[in-house]
Amino acid sequence: MSMLNEILEFNKNFVEEEKYEQFITTKFPDKKMVILTCMDTRLFELLPKSMNLKNGDVKIVKSAGAVINHPFGGIMRSLIVAIYELNADEVYIIGHHDCGMSAIEPQKIMEKMKTRGIAEETIEMMRYSGVNLDEWLRGFDNVTESVRHSVNMVRNHPLMDNEVPVHGLVIDPKTGKLDLVVDGNENR
């Protein structure tokens, strides 16, 4: 049985047995906050539990490394929507130690793309079209500085409400310990 079929079979039983009832909530976060964090599998349950969050408390946006690499991309749009449309009053940018983005080498990723069938001509066409793939795929050297960078991207965005605190933290993916990088309540 394929993974998809396993998921669909489980889901059928989940719905028939009404196991969803314990998760019913509204689209508005009870704790009025939005978190941008990494897509790392270790954080899936650890991060909310380490912050005393339950289903319905928070909006969670995920990206590789909790990085905002474009001020008008999808990540920033999600944060803006959470604030203006979904009643979030605080933003938390939460990176983590031992992040895979700290080891990303753009050239190696592009080699893997070619191995999976992406033509060299496609990569070159993107470069000639003005896409800097090396920059776009690049990770970071220091998670604290990366979090600080993302906090500044949000805090200084021209469409961001200056009254909204933007916090920066780094979590240990083994213990759940949070280290404060930026207290968004200061210097607003």
Question: What summary fits the major beta sheet?
Answer: 5 strands, mixed
Radius of gyration: 19 Å
CA distance, first residue to last residue: 54 Å
- The assigned structural class equals alpha/beta
* Count of individual beta strands: 5
Low-confidence stretches: none
Taken as a percent bin, the fraction of beta residues is 15-25%
Q: Give the strand line-up of the largest sheet.
A: 2-1-3-4-5
Compressed to H and E, one letter per element, the order equals HEHEHEHHHHEE
- The averaged pLDDT comes out at 95
The helicity comes to 25-40%
Distinct helical segment count: 7
- Any idea what the shape is? globular
Pfam families: Pro_CA (PF00484)
Protein name: carbonic anhydrase
Catalytic activity: hydrogencarbonate + H(+) = CO2 + H2O
Cofactor: Zn(2+)
Structural commentary:
It holds the Pfam family Pro_CA. It catalyses: hydrogencarbonate + H(+) = CO2 + H2O. Its cofactor is Zn(2+). Its EC number is 4.2.1.1. Belongs to the beta-class carbonic anhydrase family. Helix content is 37%, strand content 16%. The protein is built from 7 helices and 5 strands. Strand 1 (33-38), helix 2 (43-50) and strand 2 (58-63) form a beta-alpha-beta unit. The chain has helices at residues 3-16, 43-50, 74-84, 106-115, 120-128, 133-137, 143-155; strands spanning 33-38, 58-63, 90-96, 166-171, 178-182. A 5-stranded mixed β-sheet has the order 2-1-3-4-5, with helices on both faces. The relative contact order is 0.16. It is α/β, with parallel strands linked by helices.
